[in-house]
Amino acid sequence: MRVVREWPEPLARSVRWHRDPVVVQALRSTAAATVSYVIALHVSPEKAPLTAPLTALLVVQVTLFSTLTTGIRRVNSVVAGVVIAIAFSLLVGLTWWSLALLILASLAIGHLVRVDEFVPEVAISAMLVLGVTSVGDTAWARILETLIGAVVGLACNLLLAPPVWVGEAGASIDGLARRMRQLMLRVGEEAAGRTPVAKAAERLHEARRLDHDIVQVDAALRQAEDSLRLNPRVHEGLLHRVVLRTGLDTLEICTVVLRVLARTFTDLAKVRDPEPLFKRETGKVLEQLLSEIGDSVVSFAVLVTTDVSVSAESAEKRLTNELRRAAATRDKLAELLLDEVTGDSLHWQLHGAVLAEVNRILDEMDTEHRSRRLLEELDRCTREQRERLPRLTRLGDRLRLARRAGRSRLAAVRRSM
Fold first, then answer.
1. How many Cα atoms within 13 Å fall on the side-chain side of residue 7?
2. Which of 16, 76, 342, 409 has the greatest number of beta carbons closer than 10 A?
């Protein structure tokens, strides 16, 4: 039996505070900027080498991968701006028209060298260097300070144990699943009785607002994916990324289907007002089915966000059982809807749409369907990685083989003892 340790509430709040992305970002940025300024004071000829801490502030990100990529783009932008400024100082000097040409050329070259969000930095560096009297000394000092800030920012994330934001992404996915479940419960309760058109329209708006939740979860997941790349603390980064990403894709599809289902109920409420949407028995079965599907959605989120093999196996069994119960209830609902259509054929399209939409949600969460999806996505990502970085992929394969061989030798030694 697994024992879960309960932290006291003040200590738990302190732990959450220290893992908050905003807090982590502020501490890392402050440390990197301070250290880079101290180093630049001893190395740069400038009296106040503020370019170094400025670069460190822009380079240090929450994840190691974004820190590395941002640092490279930042250095490229500064070097490009300095080179442009040196060329303009030798050719035309500083006038109003040369300044205009300098800015235009800097922005154009910034796009050519692909520095992305640092395109304005090319023009800023060029203007600052061109505006001083000793262009050569200032140019090299600015490049040096930029390199100091970039290196310190990268070293800060390397030495301070780059964080892994999988837990935060998992919490976002779990929160989305629980909000979907609450909406399904409300829709089911109202479908079991008389549903005013205004109430059905309100549930449709709630379903549409889930799109905003998807965007927020996607942002948290992108941060988690970046934290897994190039992170020495992670051994199966690709697997974690694929599991989380495919899980969010499934929930996004279910969210779209849930919105369509809410739209179907709204249309049904309009055509049947003031009568109930379904007969009493049909409404009760539909309420039960949506409750079971809601429980399955939460179990699916637990399965996606669980990284321990034993817990994942338990979550998969629970999800399989809940889907089986929901499928049985769905079959019962299909029979009742068929009876309703036989007695009243005016709204058979809407009744059929309800059945088709709950079928789609159940199919998306099916464990066999998810296994195939995972394998396909893993194969696709592995193939793309091998085509993009063949040498690095071969090196990684050799390291994994060496690690497995070392574990095998260690296990053999332990068995012989």
1. 8
2. 76
